[in-house]
Amino acid sequence: EHPQASALQTLWTARMLRHGFLSSGGFYPMLAHEDEHVDQYLDACDPTFAELSQAIAQNDIESRIGGPVKKSGFFRLT
User: Fold this and answer.
1) Could you give the CA distance from residue 48 to residue 54 in angstroms, rounded to a whole number?
2) What is the dihedral of CA 53, 54, 57, 61, to 10 degrees?
3) Which of 7, 38, 69, 78 gives a 20 to 30 Å CA spacing to 25?
4) Is pLDDT at 16 greater than 90 in this prediction?
5) What is the per-residue DSSP string for the chain?
6) pLDDT score recorded for residue 43
7) Confidence band of 33 (pLDDT split at 50, 70, 90)
8) HEC-encoded secondary structure of 48-60
9) What is the predicted pLDDT for the residue at 39?
10) Mean pLDDT of the chain
11) Within a 10 A sphere around the Cβ of 59, how many other Cβ atoms?
């Protein structure tokens, strides 16, 4: 419910990609995931959540993304 929720989601996705995870708003574990996969994901979450918290405190969320904020809904790409 943050006023910059889309920017926070974009920053989350960008930072998790740096850790090798294409992550949206959640993690959906399956039987194919081993403990090692879950541990790696959680290890990536720690610094990412820390940066999100810092970005909120410093009010510089969008400047950290390195690209545009994600759009909601359907938009024409061309």
Assistant:
1) 10
2) -90
3) 78
4) yes
5) --TTHHHHHHHHHHHHHHTT----S-----TT--HHHHHHHHHHHHHHHHHHHHHHHHT-HHHHHSSPPPP-S-----
6) 96
7) confident
8) HHHHHHHHHHHCC
9) 93
10) 90
11) 9
| Token reading at 64 | 């950290």
Name, in order, each residue with C-beta under 8 angstroms of 47's C-beta and a sequence gap of 6 or more: 15
CA-to-CA separations, 75 to 5, 8, 28, 37, in angstroms, rounded = 19, 20, 27, 34
Structure tokens of 76? 């024409």
CA 70 – CA 31 distance, rounded (Å) = 30
